[in-house]
Automatic annotation (TrEMBL):
It comes from Saccharopolyspora hirsuta. InterPro entries: NAD(P)-bd_dom_sf. This is Zinc-binding dehydrogenase. It comes from the Bacteria. Residues 96-107 have a biased composition (Basic residues). Residues 87-114 are annotated as: Disordered.
């Protein structure tokens, strides 16, 4: 992850921790709520883990949902998307791969300019 301090979350750190550290994780936790605030999240699970990861986003942070293996819906508590109490300027986006390429171009990542 190009110079980032990476915290990986897995349901079984004992079984997957060494492999995640070999891929570059500095810390492995069993739940995103065990992490300090983060500037970015790549979530491949969805469900409750995505909600917990969103709660760890710092001001200006971005969460990108790129998978949904949990098989459960996301239920954000009331006010989770409000921009108050230091929880402003965060963004959430999703991305999905199609089985066959689209003929139109797609913008996969966008940022806010100055």
């Amino acid at each position: 992850m190009g110079g980032a301090h990476v915290t990986a979350s897995t349901g079984n750190p004992a079984a997957h921790g060494d492999g995640l550290r070999a891929l570059g994780a500095h810390r492995v936790v069993s739940d995103p709520s065990e992490s300090d605030e983060v500037d970015g999240v790549l979530d491949m699970v969805g469900g409750a883990q995505l909600v917990a990861a969103h709660d760890r986003l710092a001001v200006g942070g971005t969460l990108v949902a790129i998978g949904h293996s949990a098989g459960e819906a996301e239920h954000f508590p009331y006010g989770a998307m409000f921009g108050d109490f230091g929880r402003h300027d965060r963004s959430v986006t999703s991305w999905r791969s199609r089985k066959r390429p689209s003929t139109r171009s797609r913008r996969l990542w966008s940022g806010q300019g100055p």
